[in-house]
Each structure stands twice: as C-alpha cells, then as structure tokens.
C-alpha cells in the first residue's frame, strides 16, 4: 500500500454537531452577556455611556476618510451590528449630546454621513481606560468558570502578538 503524500493538506476539523454546538453557543452567549453587563455598568457609572454608544464613538474614531472620520449610516449600523432604525436613534442621542454630527453626502444627496466631534473624541479618550479595565475584569472573572475558561483563552488569543 503506497504511503500518503507528505504534502497532503491536513484533515479539516469536523464541525461540532447537536448538543456540543448548542453548549458552545450557550457558553459564548453567557460570556458575551457577562462582559457586556460588566462593561455597561462601568461605562454608565463613570462616563454616562452605554456599550453601544461607546462602540459607535469608537468605530467613528477609527475612520480616516474625512476630518475625524465618518461613515454612512448604513455602514455604521453594520459596524456596530444594529438595525438602521436603532442606529438612527442612537446617533440622534449622541448628536443631541454634541458627541457626533450628521451631514448630507456631497456626492450622493441620499447618503447621510455620521462624524465624531471633538467632544465625542474627548469623551471616548476618557472612557477607553474604563472600557479596557472593565473588559479585563470581566474576562478574569469568566476565566475562573470552567465552562467559560476555554472561550476566554480564545478571546485573549485573537489579537495577541504572534
């Protein structure tokens, strides 16, 4: 019987099925819920920001297409995983607080851009350490739970230096 070629691709890992998949999903959902609740409390207490508001400001701060960065509303909705109507309500709240602004796209009058303001960037800069500390605390707490520890390890390894 001939040997298998040494350059053959490795066998793919089989997909989880049934109960294992459901348990994994439940653990992932539990980890997300724990983290979001912990971070939400910290951001609300110290900066009067929700996790979603922080996410919107953070996403906009990372755009470099214009002064301060901007996105069309649909792009922002996709980036923060919200419906367009929920994103519009959230942007309106942040705009009312002077943290972002909206303007009509000069090339396409149907498009509306959202842009972070200097006040939004300042609040985001103040809130980032709170967000980071709360995230670390939530992950540390979750790592102590056997059902969540493997997920915490996976999350921590996502952006670790190679």
TrEMBL record:
<feature type="domain" description="HTH marR-type">
    <location>
        <begin position="21"/>
        <end position="160"/>
    </location>
</feature>
<dbReference type="InterPro" id="IPR039422">
    <property type="entry name" value="MarR/SlyA-like"/>
</dbReference>
<dbReference type="InterPro" id="IPR000835">
    <property type="entry name" value="HTH_MarR-typ"/>
</dbReference>
<dbReference type="GO" id="GO:0003700">
    <property type="term" value="F:DNA-binding transcription factor activity"/>
</dbReference>
<dbReference type="Pfam" id="PF01047">
    <property type="entry name" value="MarR"/>
</dbReference>
<dbReference type="GO" id="GO:0006950">
    <property type="term" value="P:response to stress"/>
</dbReference>
<dbReference type="InterPro" id="IPR036388">
    <property type="entry name" value="WH-like_DNA-bd_sf"/>
</dbReference>
<dbReference type="InterPro" id="IPR036390">
    <property type="entry name" value="WH_DNA-bd_sf"/>
</dbReference>
<protein>
    <submittedName>
        <fullName>MarR family transcriptional regulator</fullName>
    </submittedName>
</protein>
């Amino acid at each position: 019987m001939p040997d298998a070629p040494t350059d053959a691709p490795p066998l793919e890992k089989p997909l989880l099925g049934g109960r294992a998949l459901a348990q994994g999903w439940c653990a992932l959902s539990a980890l997300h819920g724990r983290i979001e609740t912990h971070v939400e409390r910290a951001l609300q207490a110290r900066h009067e920001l929700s996790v979603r508001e922080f996410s919107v400001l953070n996403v906009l701060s990372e755009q470099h297409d214009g002064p301060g960065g901007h996105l069309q509303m649909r792009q922002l909705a996709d980036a923060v995983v919200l419906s367009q109507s929920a994103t519009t309500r959230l942007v309106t709240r942040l705009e009312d607080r002077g943290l972002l602004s909206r303007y009509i796209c000069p090339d396409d009058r149907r498009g509306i851009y959202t842009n972070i303001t200097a006040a939004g960037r300042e609040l985001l800069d103040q809130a980032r350490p709170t967000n980071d500390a709360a995230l670390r605390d939530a992950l540390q707490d979750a790592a102590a739970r056997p059902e969540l520890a493997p997920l915490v390890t996976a999350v921590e390894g996502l952006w670790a230096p190679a």
